[in-house]
């Protein structure tokens, strides 16, 4: 096991009817801004619960955060923050809203000339941000309990991420009931997103970290078990609660302690979304099996371990095939042709962008643009 430090400062407030608990966690004597998406929280009753809990607070509202949150939209929110001297943010929605709130929180106090540098440098040196809390309505990204954020820039067709300790939420409310009204597609996406988050921290090579492996495998087994069940019965509280908690634990820094990571699938997926507009989880389901096949020899040991422990199969290739079968079983496509997208074109555009940046990825930092072109071309 490698050396590590672990700290997660986010308080998790979990369970049915727990939104009311934000009244004692949001400061009363300062302006608070609620950051929201397109209005689904009004239809599912979450907005009413939040407003009731904050009836003694001075609340400003910002609406319109996109499913792939835009840098341009975040800057508009920052203007509202500064105009009203907001001192606390409350993100109410899914991972996109939470990610946007983190960008807003960081940009609102940023001293540099160009806030895009926060993303261009992946948050390097970022020390300050407004405090924020969250009310999560869509399990997927784990953004409710980490310091990560992914933001798109419409003007340049870029999608970049940053990470910083200062944007960990102070608290996050997770009420599974708030997710009952989600469309099946969004639940499916959340299952795949959480699954992929675990894999990026697990599917590398053995480093004598059996507890971390078992943590990761426990989340994977839970998603395989409850994912299809929660899609069959969208109001099964126990299944939805297990899924929601799994998505949080998939990316709260716990399972990454002491082990190598490989975020190649995510980095490629961000560019595919930027160019073609596919949902983030849709890109992950296409790309991840391709990364594994491309790196088959180097990932052989962990693929075999994963295949045997999760699906009861013996070979690395069988493990990859069963993963695709699992995605297909929850109605998630795994090929570009399913979206009428030319894999060869994707390979050319995305690999060229990485070549311009001089990017290399993988647990050995040697997956080059040439490898990425091969990976994408293979997913036709």
3D structure, described in words:
With 380 residues, the chain is α/β, with parallel strands linked by helices. It folds into two domains: 11-177, Rossmann fold; 184-377, Dehydroquinate synthase-like, alpha domain. The chain contains 14 helices and eight strands. It has a six-stranded parallel sheet with strand order 1-8-5-4-2-3, covered by helices on one side. The protein is globular, with a radius of gyration of 20 Å.
At the fourth level of CATH, the homologous superfamily of the largest domain is: Dehydroquinate synthase-like - alpha domain
| Total domain count | 2
Mean pLDDT comes to: 97
The CATH C-level name of the largest domain is: Mainly Alpha
Q: Could you please say which CATH topology of the largest domain applies here?
A: Dehydroquinate synthase-like, alpha domain
Structural class: alpha/beta
Shape label: globular
Please give the share of residues in helix: 40-55%
Main sheet: strand order: 1-8-5-4-2-3
Instruction: Pick out the low-confidence regions.
Output: none
Rg from alpha-carbon coordinates: 20 Å
DSSP helix count?
A: 14
β-sheet strand percentage: 5-15%
Number of strands: 8
Distance between the termini: 38 Å
Largest sheet: 6 strands, parallel
Overall CATH architecture of the largest domain:
Up-down Bundle
């Amino acid at each position: 096991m490698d050396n590590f430090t672990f700290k997660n400062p986010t308080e998790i407030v979990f369970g049915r009817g727990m939104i009311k608990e934000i009244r004692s966690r949001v400061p009363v004597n300062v302006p608070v801004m609620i950051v929201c998406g397109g209005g689904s929280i009004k239809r599912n009753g979450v907005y009413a619960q939040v407003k009731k809990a904050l009836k003694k607070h001075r609340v400003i509202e910002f609406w319109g955060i996109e499913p792939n949150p835009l840098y341009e939209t975040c800057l508009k929110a920052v203007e509202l923050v500064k105009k009203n001297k907001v001192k606390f943010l409350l993100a109410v929605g899914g991972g996109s809203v939470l990610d946007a709130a983190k960008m807003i929180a960081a940009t609102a106090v940023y001293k540099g000339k160009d806030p895009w540098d926060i993303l261009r440098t992946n948050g390097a040196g970022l020390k300050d941000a407004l405090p924020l809390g969250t009310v999560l309505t869509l399990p997927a990204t784990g953004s409710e309990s980490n310091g990560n954020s992914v933001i798109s820039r419409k003007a340049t067709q870029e999608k970049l991420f940053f990470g910083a300790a200062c944007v960990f939420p102070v608290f996050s409310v997770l009420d599974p009931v708030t997710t009952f009204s989600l469309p099946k597609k969004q639940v499916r996406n959340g299952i795949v997103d959480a699954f992929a988050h675990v894999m990026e921290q697990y599917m590398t090579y053995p480093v004598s970290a059996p507890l971390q492996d078992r943590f990761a495998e426990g989340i994977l087994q839970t998603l395989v078990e409850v994912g299809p069940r929660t899609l069959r019965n969208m109001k099964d509280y126990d299944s939805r609660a297990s899924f929601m908690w799994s998505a949080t634990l998939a990316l709260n820094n716990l399972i990454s302690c002491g082990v190598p990571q490989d975020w190649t699938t995510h980095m490629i997926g961000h560019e595919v979304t930027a160019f073609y507009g596919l949902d983030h989880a849709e890109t992950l389901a296409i790309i991840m099996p391709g990364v594994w096949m491309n790196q088959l020899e180097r990932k052989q040991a962990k693929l075999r371990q994963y295949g045997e422990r999760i699906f009861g199969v013996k070979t690395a290739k069988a493990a990859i095939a069963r993963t695709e079968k699992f995605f297909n079983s929850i109605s998630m496509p795994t090929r570009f042709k399913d979206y009428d997208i030319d894999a060869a074109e994707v390979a050319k555009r995305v690999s060229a962008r990485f070549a311009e940046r001089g990017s290399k990825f993988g647990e050995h930092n040697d997956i080059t643009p040439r490898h990425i072109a091969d990976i994408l071309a293979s997913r036709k």
